Every structure is written in structure tokens, then in C-alpha cells.
Give the backbone structure.
Amino acid sequence: MRLLFVTIGSLGDLYPCLALAMEMKRRGHSVTIATTEAYRARVLQLGVRFHSLRPDWDPTDSALISQCEDLKSGPEVLFRKLILPHLENTYRDLLVAAKDCDLMLSGELVFAAPLVAEKLQLPWVSLILSPCSFLSAHDPSLLVNMPQLIHLRRAGWRLNRAVLNLGTWLTKGWWKPVQRLRAREGLSPDCAPLTRDKFSPLLVLALFPSVFAQQQADWPPQTVQTGFPFFDGSTTHSLQPELAHFLSAGEPPIVFTLGSTAVSHPGSFYQVSREAALRLRKRALLIGISDPQIHSDHLRTVSYAPYSAVFPRASVIVHQGGSGTTGQALRAGRPQLFVPFGWD
């Protein structure tokens, strides 16, 4: 089959697609990744075809990330300022990329994907990374822009559904660009991109295990939980010699990391992490920055290291709580401390 994986976002969005794409390639299928131009080299070096998808943004842009991480306004900024203004460009790029494929597999931020599937009469699959994305009234998640609603968690699914419906009504104006594009393309203007349309009627893949979150009565019935699709950019799980020596030279260190997004706007995270390790008199590895001047027998910094190789050798993992990072930490079987950033 000719498979097209489509995603917009951080490495946390890209890596699950790469994990699935590499497995499908191993099984003999033709695979293409359509995503932000900034990821071209990363995709091509794995021997996977690449198709550029607008918006053409820099996923490491500190100013951009700081806007999205504001807990109150972040969701609106992401949707209304960073994604939806480019919707028509995304749609046009995706029409070209999907023209000759047999199946499209799309992340939820690609609001153009359901339109392209409908326009081309193309079967497609939804890729959902987090339980929160299902907006379940039976198992409500903590919504970062309305954290006080978590106190209604035990109030019953009917009240929680009413609250979620209210949120849908209050944000319906966000989706006018989708409605306009659908009308221009001869499709029904009726749409609900955040609550209905992002779920393929064919198959929804929940890319996390049931021990992480169990399937709920109000999830789409065509949902299948796959477990975490592990990929961390390493095919050999090898470490730089200096880092491998540090990990072997003493007790397992505390590993501090911020994934692939928050690391570009970390605030005081790394400074506080270093001070905490010094207070505790514990060895520490800081992933996401590189500052050899502060290296010692007890401290190392590294701009990148594959979690699959590092996490099993940690004493504790302190991280931002992103889905991919959490999955790797659970897989390593080490204690975790979450320091949430943005939507994590």
C-alpha cells in the first residue's frame, strides 16, 4: 500500500508517525511523511519519503512556544493564530501529497485532513496521542485552560458532558475558516474539528496503552488502543562515549529533561534542576542544554540523548509530562516527577 502519514507540531507529534512509518516500511509498504519543512532532513535520513506541509514554522522558535504555553490563552493562540490562518495552504499541500496514496493517517492538529479525505474519497485513520484529546465526560481530563473544572470530575458524566458542550459552543467561532473552506470546496459547511471531525469514521488509533488510560463509553467505537509507538530518533540506541562513561562512572543520576518543545522555552528549569541536584548531593544529567563549563564528576549536560538508552540508567526522571516522554519513562520503569509545561 501507499501510506501517507500527516502531522503538524513538535517531535512529540512526529515521532509516533515515524515509529509507525518505519514499521510499515519494514513490512513492505510505500511510506511518505507530510509535515513541517523543518523536519525534512530528519525524515529523509530514515529512508522515508517526505512531502512539505505548511505552515512552514520553526518548531524550536522560543517566542512561538512561549505563546502556546500560556495556560489560559495557549489553545486559542495555537488554533486561531498558528494553524487556522494557514488552513487553505495546508489543504492545498495535502491535496497534492494525498493524490496517489491508498490510506492517510493523520494527527489531530491537521484540520485539513478530514476535508482532503472527503474531497478525494480517501480512507483515513486518526492518530490520537493523549487521553485528553477524547474529551471524555466519563473520565474527564484536567484541561489546562480551565483547571478548576477538575473539581467536577466526580459529579457524574451528564454534568461533565454539559460542561464540555458549553465549551464547544463558546469556541464555535474559532472554526469559521474551516467552514468557509468546506463551502468553497463544495462540502457541507457543518463542522466540529475539535470534537467530532478529528475522529475518522474508519479507525481511530489511541497511541497509548490501557494501563495509561482505559477506553471510555464516549470514545468513538472504532477506537483501537495500540500502546505507545516508541521512537526517539535512534536506530542503534547508542550513546556518545563521554555520556556513556558518565552514566557508568557512579550511581545512576537524576535525569532532567523537557522533551522537544518546552526545551526551547525552559525558563529557570535547568538552573533549578542543577541547584536541586547539588542540594541533594546527587549525580545529574541535564538533557536539552549543552554547557561543558559546568560539567563535573557529578553533572553532565547534553543537547540530545535517546531516552530509550538513558532512562533505564536513571535513578529518577524529572520531565515535562509529554506523552512520548512519559511513555519512555514508564517503559524504563524508573520513578518520575512531572514539572508540567504548557499543555503537558
